[in-house]
Task: structure prediction
Amino acid sequence: MKKLLILLTVFLMVFGLAACSKPEDKGFELALITDVGNIDDKSFNQGAWEGLVKYAEENDITHQYYKPTEQSTAAYVDAIELAVTGGAKVIVTPGFLFGPAVFEAQDLFPEVKFVLLDADPHSEDWTQFRAEDNVYSIYYAEEQSGFLAGYAAVKDGYTNLGFMGGMAVPAVVRFGYGFLQGAEYAAAELGLADVMVKYHYTGNFDDTPDNKAKAASWYQSGVEVIFAAGGKVGNSVMSAAEEADKKVIGVDVDQSPESDTVITSAMKELGNSVYLALEAYYADEFPGGEIVTLRADVDGVGLPQDFSRFTTFKQADYDAVYAKLVDETITLKTNADGGNEAGVPDAAKLGLTAVKITVE
Amino acid sequence: MDTIYFVFQNSLLFTVPLVVVALGGMFSERSGIVNIALEGIMVIGAFFSIFFIKTFQGSIPPQLLFILAMFIAIIVGVLFSLLHAYASINMKANQTISGTALNLFAPAFAVYTARMVQGVSQIDFENNFRIPKVPLLGDIPVIGNLIFQNVYITTYIGIGILVVASIILYKTRFGLRLRACGEHPQAADSAGINVIKMRYTGVMLSGALAGLGGLIFVVPISTNFSGSVLGYGFLALAVLIFGQWKPSRILFAAFFFGMMKTIASTSTIIPFLADLSLDPAIYKITPYLATLIVLAFSSKNSAAPRAAGEPYDAGKR
Result:
């Protein structure tokens, strides 16, 4: 009886192992590692994942996402290793924090391709920068996206604005500086002498009562529309806007379904750029080693094509200003030449005259 | 004056949930069971009740829906707290570990279940529960502006709970027995009080209030819920300690915390504070610093229930 049991156990174990290893035979060809936050964050991770899923489903390719156990370079590298073991040929890593992880992984797994969003591979101490042939780094011109949002808001008649960013990471700072310059540009066109902008980084990406109270106090003091560039900070701002009957500008993806107060969103085409990168890979044209910034000229950034929540700003106005970004009639200052290292804007450096910034 | 009203109205966002949850913690600890699971119970209460709001929003009038959601939050909170009660009363488990287990379980459960049911972890809801002005009462000068305008119904429920909780604790037979079980359960037992029953009631009351607190914390501050109450359950524990396990002092402590946090966020629109232009971090630190100081000075004659944290052992004298 005992022997029989042992035999049975052995059988079970063998079968169990076989069952486990089954997906590995086939594996998941496309993988995404999530950054801080979940795959369904309605923002960064989700945008990138949707692009991957779209390509995978159209071409019937296996795909899977992996969540690192914690927010650290070591955990990110582990997650990448897990994805490679799982059969990944292309790994999408969305987020600024993946820079050092991909820097390590590009040498560990030379046969795997990496699509790195919002960062380029660099060593943890920021002394070495190197992108091997298996890495394609994508940046977005957030300043152009923010510019369009600021321009549209002032053109639509708002003269008392707010910018509430999350942490002052480079992408958020670019959104902010662009927003200020957009407001200035519209003010110059309209001949306005005074456009007030309150400017603040919350230091987190959460929907806290503190952020809600901050937004509510801005609305109370006369701010008409707040550009919320910080993940779930936006939900707190929307909540405050719903109470005060004021407006919000969303970020990253079209956030208008989340609240009626969202008049527009400063988007970057995460999904589309992932889609295009995968398409290039399967056409044997993977742009390895390249570091690109997707601008308006390749539709890398923009506002949603729905202008119904504006009163006077229309599609034609948008197209006109967008064309100027495309042909570079308008050039924008970004992080290095627009403020200090902490991401605090400098009115003189940004060339602001009509726009008056109050940094809080 | 408008600014003062505004700041006060906003401070209620912090104060009301803190009072309700801290009172929950008070009932549990006064019965002798340390309940650090408040955070987890808040998450579970918020999760089920906000899911309920999402499902029925539009088909039930807002205020009625809000009240029904509160009942759901209370019921779920009670059921969830029973796990803690069973582990720490029947099984005589370490109460800190049992509470930690619930805290770890709750957000994971909320995110996982939300994804299974609706595909994404965020539960969206529309916040249309605010009352711009209570008829008649809203016209009273000063007081009307302070607590009868731009208010949530939860403010009154919170005040009600505070009054009822003080009466129960100090003026009823049940309250006396509950306190006895938290101070010296063996003595209470020898006087014929069923310690186990009292402790179960204490934990269940804390579950009810923490579940409710989760809902009323989340509703005014966001447009979706994704399995987190951002450590406010722990903050409520700090309020409970700062308030020395007494309802009136808990109110004061919660109000102090709430006011300081509001001022930290809104100091730039308060005229005389804007002129000072202090770093907002100073206001943020103040309540925590005050808690530490109060603890340091009052630890000798702390009002903590003497038997809190100890499993009841009838044989011990």
Remarks:
- The mean pLDDT of chain B is 91.
- The longest strand of chain B covers residues 131-133.
- Residues 51 and 123 of chain B are 7 Å apart (CA to CA).
